Amino acid sequence: MAKWAIFDVDGTLFPPSSMEKCFILFMLKKGALSVENIASYFFTGAMKSIFQGYEEGFKNNKLYLRNLPVRPISKMAANFVKTQIWPQISLTGLKRISECRQKNYKILLMSGSPDFLTFPLSNFIQPDFTIAAELEKRQGRFTGHLENLHPYGERKSQLMQKYQSTLQMDFNQSIAYANHHADFDHLSLFRKAVAVNPSHKLEILAKRQQWTIENWQ
To answer: Which residue, of 120, 132, 134, 143, has the greatest Cβ tally within 10 A?
Structure first.
């Protein structure tokens, strides 16, 4: 069994926000999103939020991408990561990754942002494994839906348990870093958890669990 260091991206390694939110704003400024897609995204999100909760309504909702061509969007995203995301990655976070490598931890990067943003970031960080929101594609276009479980909330812990055998991950020897109270179940899997730039609720939970709390710049 191997020991792993699991790093959340949005709000943790990338302190400003989520990569996806930043990219959506970028696409809007570039005129890359149609009015139809934006309307569909918000209408469906609002309806699902009422009946199924915010996570199902917006976190798992990728309808803003429906029918957009995969290759141009992916190319735009890769350049966006290079010019807008990578320069804002936490230096403290990169230092923690380096320290974990020196202690023989394998590095896992996990993000609920789309794969076309997360994997270009992985090219800079070079983790041993990456988990991202995998987008469904048909005939070279995005469908607006996800292929697999979305790495957010309780589903993060489900994904960790799914990959535990494949990665030979020893939860008792591993460490996880995350920033949001939605990550609580995920953090609870590991012997050591670190609440980074924690939301108010996660800070309360972290103190109760006696987890380490860190502020990354």
So the answer is: 132
